[in-house]
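Incident log entry.

Two folding requests arrived from the same account within the same minute. Monitoring flagged them as a possible duplicate submission, but the sequences differ. Recording both here for audit purposes.

Request one:
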Amino acid sequence: MVKKEKSCKKSNEKTIVKNNVKSNVKSNLKNIANKMKNKIAKVLFSDEFECLNCGAERMENEHFYLCKKCFFDIEFIENSCEICGDRVGSFDLICNNCKKTSHFFTKALCVAKYDGVASNLVRKLKYDNSKYLAKTLGLFMAQKLKKSGLKDIDFVVPVPLNINRIIERGFNQSELIAKVVAEECSLKVNLKLVKRVKNTPTQTSLSSSERRQNVKNAFELLDKSAVKDKNILLIDDILTTGATIDELSKLFKKHKAKNVFALTFCHA
């Protein structure tokens, strides 16, 4: 009889332990789920995002995901050259470079000078695998496009990246940005119109003439009929001398494109 009582007692203890373990597991899982829900909710709905440039608390209700200091440190281009989009004086329409150099593209729009915060955002996107920054750059560029009054764009085309860079980087930053701009401005993106057939070296240290030589015959048009009588918007992260944009515009114009415009985040 005593043995049966001890056996029942041990069985009850085991049952209690099992129930406690189950209860604790459920409780822990519930806590984890709640924490995850809170984190997701904070990311989706909170105004207390961290600045994507410096990590400080960003501006309340600011959709560019930057803090107040970083936002106002960007050198926005207000008075711009009617052709290349670079900054000009208050009473100038065309910059000195465009007075000396002819371009195949009709007009370029650039958000900011390639300096400080703006250049840091571009470098982080391209070299730190910070793909999420394409959203911020794309939003700035979409706003620039909307304010420009540029209309009747048939489709958006990101500047193709050379294959070695895509393998190295894992993505084409211009394509990521182009998708954001297209979505914000209700435009179509054409990713199959043109490809880069020449693996050109980086143009960072090249002169203007060297850049033009570097990208000469670097692109192949895959659908010649698609550009005829079309207004095309090229998307890139930076415009420096305009050599790359010009080479693509020349190719499109050769096959009867009506206009080729360009939109970049920075002008260097």
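Request two (distinct sequence, not a duplicate):
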Amino acid sequence: MRTYSNTLEVKSTLKHLFLGAVAFCAAACSAPTEAPVEVSAPAPEKSHNNITEAEIIDGWELLFDGQCTGNFRKYGDTVIGKAWVIEDEALHLDASSKEDWQTNSGGDIVYQAMDGTLREFENFHFKGEWKIGERGNSGIIYLIHEDTAQYPFCWMTGLEMQVLDNGTDSTEGHPDAAIHKHRAGDLYDINASPEGAAMPAGEWNQFEIIVQEGRLTQILNGVVTVDRPLFDEQWRADVAASKFHEFPGYGTFRKGGIALQDHGDPVWYRDLKIKALTTSPIVSD
């Protein structure tokens, strides 16, 4: 009976404590109080521009997180042009105000190191997604050498994976779509890509650019569009037969930076990642 009595006492005590707590909370809610401190809601999970811990350990870098453009600046400058904005988790060129063939307050932008210098790669695997507006033109330029005194534009030294609206049976596309080696996925003015690799304007395309030990591979939507050696006799002959023959620095730098081109048309980029490679073979995703 003693144990039973103790149990009743404990229950009675807990009951009074609970009722007291309820009364205290009711009084506190009805009494005047200071404005509650706002608690920030957790940031919504991003659909794009993410990088995993495993990728970081494996050496991948995320160029753009969907929230800040700080990893980029204009070629030959210290800041990014105001026409490059963030839209729907993408790095977007707002080409509503054109100046000649480029965008007012735009310009080609380069991936920079923390000290503001050009981030350079020799052997690398670069991948991401792009989307082009109707009849639009842009490009992903790599192995660029930044010396504006000799090379006012990054495409005077860097190779370009063409970003273009090729058009469809019912849409016109960009005028360059009618020019051999100027279509989406091409190594611009050097090598043509297979037909049908690119998605129509307004749809996302997945790209990969791999440079390793003097060999280039370009991939668009899982299709290998270019696979060739660089810097050999055939390379020099192909450059000499192209529009770039007048630029002695084009395609000669074995180490260089990454740029996204302003060609005066709306374009979007996202999920941009790059990895410096060793001499080990690379297998595409």
